[in-house]
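User: Assemble these into one structure.

Assistant: Restating your components, then the assembled model:
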Amino acid sequence: MKLLSLVPVVAVGGLLLFAAQDFPEWGDPASPASTSPVSSHFIQSTGVDTEVPNMVTAVLADYRGFDTMFETVVVFIAGMAVLAILKSSGRRKGKREHEVEAEPDLIVTNTVRLIVPVIQIFAFYVLAHGHVSPGGGFQGGVVMGASFILVALAWDLEVALARFSAEKCILVAALGIVLYGGIGFLSMLLGGEFLDYAELEKVLPVSREMARYHAMLGVEIGVGFTVTAIIFALYANLSTEGRLKGGL
Amino acid sequence: MFEDGAIVNELLVERLNYFIYVVLLLIGLHAMISKRNLIKKLIGMSIFQTAIILFYVSIAVKEEATIPIYKAEHDPHGEVHHHPEKGGEEAEAHHGPVALKDEEIKQYANPLPHVLMLTAIVVGVATLGLALALTQRIYQGYGTIEEDELLTKIERADDRASQSPLKSNQSPSPKKAKGSATAKKATASPSRKSGSASQGKSAAKRKPAKRKPGSGGGKKA
């Protein structure tokens, strides 16, 4: 079976490498991707339209903000689906031999106690500084969720759940999407299109470009909320098969 | 064989990124096809997604271009901007954001594949989380996550369900003949690619003696 499956794999590989001869060279500045008018437009006008130095964040949160909103909804739905699948599981047929009862280790707990606040501040930094350096909502949200997972690993899942309970997870995740859509709706109420952040200059005392700058920060915060909550909820449910007791 | 234009030079030197990522793709694909454990298949899927993401990000590279974040001289909030046409008059003045010229665009890598791949990474994480939850559910229901054992158990569950007294009173042996492909195809839905080899193996594992429908309740679990 394993040898038989090598045949289609090698065939696919041969076809792909045969097609790869026609691709542009690596790093070719004249390749169609590098000279496309769309990317040139983004590189040119990000500074003028939004005054955000990071083009990737500007494209993600402003020019293609609609996609990012639904991406956040996808993350949220994945968390809800995992909850739905695992909470409906009732009886367990297997023995409980894979549950590990371990005492929290002294060195690990004290190190984590010192490190986790730093990690969380770093997560806020990655989120807020995403306009100027690589970062943004998804990245900062993942680091923040990882800090909760670290607490759950060093002590017990109950210790982490006492700080960020399962109900609060769902609430915070939904709050993130409401924040994102709320900024969009606010733009619509002020006379623009959905997610047209420039219209927010009517409520904020800034210029049109800076309104887009600040609204991008707002939507990134929404994304960060959702990603944090769902990453931790995924870990909590997957490691305990939905029961939220015991686990790793 | 490393001269310009030779195939090896083209693939391995000029287009090294495509070669590497195709190899990574094939590793992931082979893992998804040939491994029997569901978790190993998921790891293969994750490798496959990673290869695709890296492939797209490698397309964004431009020679001698920096990351797609404005450099200090193009910074929209910068305080110093040199206008080459105006000599040195406005060399130290504040300025607002200025649209870049063509040769300055060449200094930055293409930001679009990075943006698209951010979405792809997030979707990959969501898919992986959901797949792991489904695997746990399968384990709870069947007690195994090996593909061939799962197939056996699903076939037996189907056979048990098909022996209910509500169905017509026909002998079940034609259905359970080792060569019958249709019943096996109907139960082979969780595994897309298992060939007849593993089905023949699992059929051989079952006892050849079949009970009559009247005593169908005594079929072993």
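Chain A touches chain B through 70 residues (CB under 8 Å).
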